[in-house]
Amino acid sequence: MSFTRLLCAAAALAAFVGPFAAPVEALAQSKTVAITAIVQHPALDATRDGVVEALKEAGFVQGQNLKVEYQSAQGNPATAAQIARQFAGSRPDVIVPISTPSAQAVAAATRDIPVVFTAVTDPLSAQMVKSMDKPGANITGLSDMAPVAEHVALIREIVPQAKRIGVLYNPGEPNSVVLVKALKDEAAKAGLSVVEASVPKSSDAQPAVRSLVGKADAVYIPLDNTVVSALESVIAVGHQAKLPIFSADTDSVSRGTAASIGFDYFQVGKQTGAIVARVLKGEKPGDLPVALAKGTDLFVNPKSAAAMGVTLPEAVVKRATKVVGQ
Description:
Elements: H1 3-29, E1 31-37, H2 42-57, E2 66-72, H3 77-90, E3 94-98, H4 100-109, E4 115-120, E5 139-143, H5 148-158, E6 164-169, H6 174-189, E7 193-198, H7 205-210, E8 218-221, H8 225-228, H9 231-241, E9 245-247, E10 259-262, H10 265-280, E11 291-292, E12 297-300, H11 302-307, H12 314-319, E13 322-323
Parallel strand pairs: 1-2, 1-3, 3-4, 4-5, 5-11, 6-7, 6-8, 8-9, 12-13
Antiparallel strand pairs: 10-12
Organism: Azospirillum lipoferum (strain 4B)
Protein name: ABC transporter substrate-binding component
Keywords: Signal
């Protein structure tokens, strides 16, 4: 073949390949993020959606250069471990576990795939990281440690006659154990006692809150995935027994708790997604400090509070970020 013919053939090949070159390049740059949560409820769902939105803002668009996989453990720790092993086997670019049980399961399943956890109350107590500033290994994330002191102050403001706070929690959730300890410390400072009721599984939530009737003047629900997944059954008892129910999760207020000071979990997800984007762009998770959730909102539900036998003070309603149930 002459040199001239060779050039013509090369030009023809380039013209043929040209239309396909961009998709091939895009495919090579495509990333996969695997997301898992211990259970489905509004706060954790909002966190997941926030992660995806932040990734989009960072240039990782689902269906274009990003594939997002999602699985819920439906409240079962054994299922959480199974999902974690499955994700580790499929080797995504980043795994994002939402909640402490899912984060612990994922951390146990892989030592090399980047992990960015979120909605983990106390990563140190959960043994997720070596330190908050230098988490080390393949992991970092975001802590949503609840403002428990503000919760106790809010309960006292709304139920000034309260002497005993009941608390519903799953002792198998390390995040809840940490928050119950914090609650006891803050309650003691305020001259209040704490009455515990164990909720090992969601079906135990209603009998547990019934056990607090007559023993507690108000009930507090920490960031406990087991209890929150069965929240409506708890609220029903609160209405029947005229027992005010408070929560650490602002999303629970729209479902019937009287009031809460907490985070907007869509924004928590967006904070987390910004970290995930940094990892996808090449930063090592172990070098990134664990972030703290930013911004707290006051949500109140005057209608449900009244059904529980309390009237929200006007000052509380006026300063609320959001009033629901009207």
